[in-house]
Design brief:
Length: about 500
């Protein structure tokens, strides 16, 4: 369908820019894709701006002095829309290349064929991960599982922009894949307990994922699986003390001790009196977190049934998700300990191919992988750094989700090949994203401020060019803690108080 014609300006059309006059009544939007035939093939371009012109209003003296002349001229007919477009690639016989020739002035600009656009962007026709659709094209965003998770993904946006909603949609897609489409095991570090509803029977009309999701309510980490170096991350131990502990741990290799027992061994050892006191105190403090024991035990919440115990390895199966519900752990240290142990155990099992390929979601990632913070404050950071660096070789992908991109470790962020960015207004965070996401120009970056809840920009290896999309409706049950606005809650509370007071007066009267 003809939507306009390429116009000739002083420095366009060129292989990197062209402007086109939009046909009368034609509907073209910013961020829409269009196509033009050139001698190289079909050129795909993105409309990155639309300008309305009217030569009647181009000169201030006409506008100010000749106001009454408006009725004498067909002013409305002099209004034109001009689209500015950036060529993205030329497609010929199914192959895409970089455009090296401009379209001709006068060339017809056409509405893009959705199927061709999907092919051009690298979407899958079948078996893709459907996150939603491209704004203005009704084209489902079907991303390739391989391209997305052969490296890592970052989901970044300000609070309330829809990161967790999108993560749930992504999770639904991973849990809904058929065996022949290739399935991965998923793990999520759920800081606020937002994903636990996946593991619960849900009310209709939502889709029930409880047969594919398990929420871990309580965890016992085998104390003997922690190295002296890791123990040192949770206590102000000197290097000498750490080495002494390391030696002692070597002596007890193969013993399934807990930290209380290890503290006893320390007391009986030949260490200096002072070292013995300090080490056993720190070990006891870890013991009292209640997170460590003699053997691994993961207790799951099961709807309507008695709690059951599992081993992590048995839970990591294709097409299923293990949700570490960290919401009941108030102390940051406990969350860090669980993330450190689980991420390390999963990565080691993946290295030895004991479990299927894994996608690991890290919510509130700035707490686990902050930039420029010591190991004592973020002990789990080291293991996530290792996964970011080496995960690709072992098919262990990270999805880091954060509302504070600027506080994220830049090395890990740079290992994320796919960035999904939603509304963001903080200028520092925006700058940081501009520097760490490839292919984003200033105009695209500025658009992030205007995104609505549920709209996202995807950039990176998974798409040929950055795309704006609308996240699809989720199928799973979003168990909101409250749907009420603050003023409504405040009103209800006041009403309750009022009715209690009336009851009291009534009681007193009777
Ligand atoms: N695509 C969407 N369609 C409909 N509603 C949405 C969509 N995305 C988000 N919402 C709604 O917006 C609200 C905030 O979304 P969400 O909890 O995902 O934000 P967030 O970015 O994770 O925020 P935070 O950083 O505070 O965790 C929720 O009530 C959610 O239901
Ligand atoms: Mg969230």
């Amino acid at each position: 369908m003809n939507i306009g014609k390429v116009i000739s300006t002083q420095d366009s059309p060129s292989p990197s820019f062209f402007a086109f006059a939009i046909a009368r009544g034609g509907k073209v939007h910013k961020d829409q894709f269009v196509q033009v035939k050139t001698e190289e093939g079909t050129l795909f371009a993105l409309v990155d701006n639309i300008i309305k012109t009217n030569r009647y209003y181009a000169r201030p003296e006409t506008v100010v002095d000749a106001e009454n002349l408006e009725g004498l001229f067909p002013v409305a007919e002099w209004e034109f829309l001009v689209g500015n477009a950036t060529p993205l690639g030329v497609m010929k016989e199914g192959l895409t290349r970089r455009p090296t020739l401009p379209p001709s002035p006068g060339a017809v600009v056409e509405k893009i064929d959705s199927a061709a656009l999907g092919k051009f962007l690298g979407f899958r026709q079948r078996g893709g991960i459907n996150l939603g659709e491209i704004v203005h094209h009704n084209l489902p965003v079907n991303l390739s599982l391989t391209k997305m998770f052969q490296k890592h993904v970052a989901i970044l946006a300000m609070s309330g922009a829809g990161k967790s909603y999108l993560t749930s949609v992504l999770l639904e897609e991973l849990l809904s894949r058929k065996k022949e489409q290739g399935r991965v095991a998923s793990v999520i570090f759920d800081v606020h307990g937002e994903y636990v509803s996946f593991a619960e029977k849900c009310p209709t009309p939502h889709e029930d994922f409880s047969d594919r999701a398990i929420a871990i309510k309580k965890i016992t980490i085998p104390a003997f699986s922690m190295s002296a170096r890791e123990i040192a991350m949770f206590s102000p131990m000197s290097t000498v003390q750490m080495v002494e502990l390391e030696e002692l741990i070597k002596e007890f290799k193969g013993t399934r001790y807990n930290f209380k027992e290890l503290a006893e061994y320390v007391k009986l050892s030949k260490m200096k009196h002072q070292t013995k006191g300090a080490l056993s105190r720190w070990l006891m403090s870890l013991h009292f977190t209640g997170l460590f024991g003699n053997e691994e035990k993961l207790v799951a919440k099961l709807d309507g049934e008695k709690d059951r115990e599992y081993k992590l390895r048995d839970l990591l199966t294709p097409g299923k998700v293990v949700i570490f519900d960290l919401s009941s752990h108030i102390a940051s240290r406990s969350k860090q300990i669980i993330a450190l142990w689980a991420a390390k155990a999963i990565f080691n099992m993946r290295r030895r191919e004991l479990i299927p390929p894994v996608v690991m979601f890290v919510e509130e990632a700035h707490n686990f992988i902050p930039e420029g913070v010591s190991k004592e404050i973020a002990p789990a950071k080291g293991v996530f750094q290792t996964i970011a660096r080496e995960g690709r070789k072992f098919l262990c992908a990270l999805v880091i989700i954060s509302q504070r991109p600027i506080r994220l470790d830049t090395t890990i962020l740079s290992q994320c090949n796919t960035h999904i960015i939603m509304r963001i207004t903080n200028p520092y965070d925006k700058d940081h994203i501009g520097r760490s996401s490839e292919g984003i120009n200033t105009r695209t970056l500025n658009s992030l401020t205007n995104l609505q809840v549920g709209e996202a920009l995807i950039t990176g290896e998974v798409v040929r060019t950055p795309i704006f999309m609308k996240v699809r409706e989720r199928k799973s049950w979003e168990k909101k803690s409250t749907d009420m606005e603050l003023d409504a809650i405040a009103f209800e509370t006041n009403m309750k108080k009022e009715s209690e007071r009336i009851d009291e007066i009534g009681d007193a009267f009777l």
